[in-house]
Amino acid sequence: RAIEPHSTRVLRAPHPKEIVMTDRTSTLALVNPDRLGYVSEAQRQLENGKTPADWIAELERRGVDRADAELIVSEAEDFNRRAAAAQNAAAPTHHEHTNDVGNAARLVARHGDSIRFVAESQTWIAWNGKAWAPRGARGAVERHAKDTAKSIYDEAKHARESDASAAEKLGKWAHQSCNSSRLEAMMRTARSDVEVAWDELDTDPWALNVENGIVDLTDGTLRPHDPAELHSKMAAARFDPAARAPHWEAFLAEVLPEPETRAWVQRAVGYSACGEIGEHVLPFPYGSGANGKSV
Q1: What is the pTM of this model?
Q2: What is the DSSP letter of 119?
């Protein structure tokens, strides 16, 4: 049955402060796959000697906002640091690891922080600095696998100092690992080590992932993006607690002249931003036509 706006049973606001709607879009959208490519390209460019400042300038020339460009380069630097640390501390360096299981362990050690495999859909997702994105993820995993296979040549060089026989075997395995069949086997074998279930993604009902961070809907604060929170969706807007929307507010005053009705609609829209469904309410806008329902 319909629930009247002035009924005593109204929606609770999702946090103590009223949510102020802006005229920015609030539709959930897949994260931009171009960003994933920029991060991967920045990793390679930085490894090849390009400075962070140069790469930020290059991204700006391509039309990327400076704040986003700085974040992309920061992510790339972080990935490269983790990869180097993993290679030095965790990557296998002995001849007994010349098999697909060993290569999967190498891949996870070097790039496991940025890739996940969704069991139910049998698809890869990759961290792009803001969310776990399915689009572009397969290509990212393939690039990581190629990087991992080529890193075995470095293992062979290090092994040559203490074990010539192991170094020779590693060199041959590095050559084999660069073949497409071994790259596919590496990625396939690594799946179970980075597996995630659908019901592990986007689990916090009071967290709203946006372009410039994660909004805590219980208190309206913003925190940095965090891959550990496993957000796979992102609202296509930046959070600005000081934002104002005079045109939107004037429109609401015209089509919903009663303040109590506007307040109820605000709570209903704010409630829809969270994942809580305890109210069991489905609002239906209605009217004679041309009175703001679609807007």
Answers
A1: 0.65
A2: T
